[in-house]
Amino acid sequence: MLGYHIRKETQILVNVWAIGRDPKIWETPLESRPERFLEPNIVDYKGHHFEFIPFGSGRRTCPAIPLVSRVLTMALEMDMSEQMGTTLKKAIPLKATATPHKG
């Protein structure tokens, strides 16, 4: 595999965080732009492209992909900046407020 010898039954960890922020793969990777997935000629997210590893692959793919692909146009704009600590967390915590629908 690309010149590497990987022993049988070796556990391999993929750095999904780095893939999601790689400017060679994504244009403006640090911006929250859900509409990028609506652009024509983008790769398919059904498990054959490593750019979409956060959504899983093959039989273990994210079960919500069919729903998300329909409601993507209604996605929220969020500040995705991070704050380092023992774990990685949002720099500005997400706050959602429910309001009654008037209609």
Structure description:
The protein has helices at residues 16-20, 65-71, and strands at residues 82-83, 89-90. With 103 residues, it is mostly loops. A hairpin with a 5-residue loop joins strand 1 and strand 2 (89-90). The protein starts with 15 loop residues before the first helix and ends in a 13-residue tail after the last strand.
Order of helices and strands: HHEE
Question: On the 0-100 scale, what is the average pLDDT?
Answer: 76
Helix content: 10-25%
Provide the structure class.
little secondary structure
Structure annotation, total helices: 2
Number of strands: 2
Poorly predicted segments:
none
Describe how the helices and strands are arranged:
Layout: H1 16-20, H2 65-71, E1 82-83, E2 89-90
Antiparallel strand pairs: 1-2
List keywords for this structure.
single chain; 103 residues; little secondary structure; two-stranded antiparallel ribbon; 2 strands; 12% helix; 4% strand; extended
Gist of the model:
The chain is mostly loops and 103 residues long.
